[in-house]
Amino acid sequence: MTAASTEPVPSAPVPSEAVDGLPVDFVWGAATSAYQIEGAAAEDGRTASIWDTFSHTPGAVADGDHGDVACDHYHRMPEDVGLLADLGLDAYRFSLSWPRIQPGGKGPANARGLAFYDRLVDELLAKGITPWATLYHWDLPQELEDAGGWPARDTAYRFAEYAGIAAAALGDRVTNWITLNEPYCSAQLGYYNGIHAPGRKHFPDFTKAAHHLLLGHGLAVQEVRAQAPRPPRVGITFNPTVAHPASDAPEDVEAARRADALGTRLYLDPVVHGRYPEDLLADLEPYSATPPVQDGDLEAIAQPLDFLGVNYYFRNVVRPSAEPHGYESVPQTDRPSTAMPWEIYPEGLTDLLTRITREYGALPLYITENGAAFDDEKSAVDESGRVQDTDRIAYLADHLAAVGRARAAGADVRGYFCWSLMDNFEWAYGYAKRFGLVHVDYATQRRTPKASALWLRDAARAARTR
Ligand code: IFM
User: Fold this and answer.
1) Where in the chain are the domains?
2) What is the predicted pLDDT for the residue at 6?
3) Deepest in the core among 168, 208, 217, 450, taking most CB within 10 A?
4) May I have one GO cellular component term (predicted)?
């Protein structure tokens, strides 16, 4: 069933502070990822990823939810591209499913899997929407996990091969490529905290995984540039930790340093500066967890990039812990939060963008994700069934204003992708957390744009027409 129309209903007012700092050619987009929306888990030759295995492991995901069907985007893609078009967005960031394109993570391309992305890219271009393809948004083929996963060096080479296949097939029409989404989550949450696939809990495996993800990134950048028929723009997306000490006490300040080292500098320093931070190496050494660097790795990792993607949702206020990573989060219970519950702290985005500019140079920056889960099922719904998510509108307005302030302070931020186009499978939280601009009724798969979708449409319009 087609979604409720986004026309011609006007949105809630767009405050000028939300868009004043953004240029007329700013890129306005929305983002999703393959496992979170596609479904069709066993169709057209796709094999299992670590998230298929993990989500079918009892107790791993809330309510036993999994991505077998998700938003059924694999079968409803034209309707979903229509939603983007109705919202007048310039760009769509999606991810390619590795086990759909290269089942098992080895060997030849799967033509039927690639055909889906061919159709998606063509549909986007036909509607004037620029595709931004992420190569890895956490769905490692299960066979590669069985062979050691990201802690095994070979996975980096497998990833580069897959990246080349994707770039050769789609790079005649896709210009913007993102190698990895949030390697912090793949490495730390997947191999140390055990709350994401593959659910392992081993500190040295986490830093091995981080190193091989970064090596895979560097090799993939080279493959994309070698294989794409047209000159690509290639970047990587991080979700740097914005770490604040719980107090001025030296031990809290030290905990924040460790959180920053593990959550931010572990990734950005090698990718941008070609080295791991000395203080981080000293932290890791007692746990036999220094990254397994071989000759040439750091040069391979530090490929020149065309842009950096930044995902931001919240800050992390920390104090010490006796665990190997050395810090724990202190919930900010007296502050407003989203349904996750993550503290709402837009100033952290301004600080993060200006810090990246200061410490990592003047690469163009794109906000490749920002958004919020709220309890939409408890929000008011208007007569057309539209969720009146005023809390999400306020979140978006405040964070866009924070981007404008970062630009005024010199950060070269060129675009903003809202997470997410539609409600979807929120990893270990299953379908309980709704981040979408568009509401999805999972029983009927009916899509209904929320008030925030219309607001983002009008914010983009306001920014373009000033
Ligand atoms: O849903 C995720 C996304 O897959 C990666 N970044 C954070 C989002 C919200 O948790």
Assistant:
1) 16-464
2) 54
3) 217
4) cytosol
pTM (2 decimals)? 0.97
Length of the chain: 466
Distance CA 266, CA 244 (A): 17
- Is 43 a catalytic site residue? no
Answer whether 357 contacts ligand 1 (Cβ < 6 A). no
Q: What's the pLDDT at 94?
A: 99
Q: Is 297 in the pocket of ligand 1 (CB under 6 A)?
A: no
What is the spatial distance between Cα 40 and Cα 279, in angstroms, rounded to a whole number? Answer: 45
pLDDT of residue 2: 43
Which residues fall within 8 angstroms of residue 229, CB to CB, at 6 or more apart? 168, 171, 172
CA contacts within 13 A on the Cβ side of 297: 19
Best mutation site among 427, 429, 433, 437 for ligand 1, i.e. most ligand atoms within 8 A of its Cβ? Answer: 427
Ligand 1 proximity of 33 Cβ (cutoff 6 Å):
yes
Owner of token pair 């300040």: 253
Q: Is 35 annotated as a binding residue?
A: no
Q: Contact at 8 Å (CB) between 66 and 454? A: no
Block means of pLDDT (10 residues each) for the chain, 466 residues, are 54 92 98 99 98 98 98 98 98 99 98 98 98 99 99 99 98 99 98 98 98 99 98 98 98 98 98 98 98 98 98 98 97 97 98 98 96 93 90 98 98 98 98 98 97 97 93
CATH superfamily of 16-464: Glycosidases (3.20.20.80)
What pLDDT, on a 0 to 100 scale, did the predictor assign at position 378? 86
Catalytic-role residue among 38, 145, 182, 343? 182
301 vs 53: CA distance, rounded Å: 30
Q: Which two tokens stand for residue 254?
A: 């030290």
Give the separation between CA 196 and CA 202, rounded to whole angstroms.
Answer: 13
- Residues contacting residue 207 through CB under 8 Å, at least 6 positions apart: 187, 266, 284, 289, 290, 291
Distance 182 CA to ligand 1 centre (A): 9
**Phi, psi for residue 204 in degrees, rounded to 5:** -65, -30
Quote the distance between the C-alpha of residue 371 and its chain's center: 11
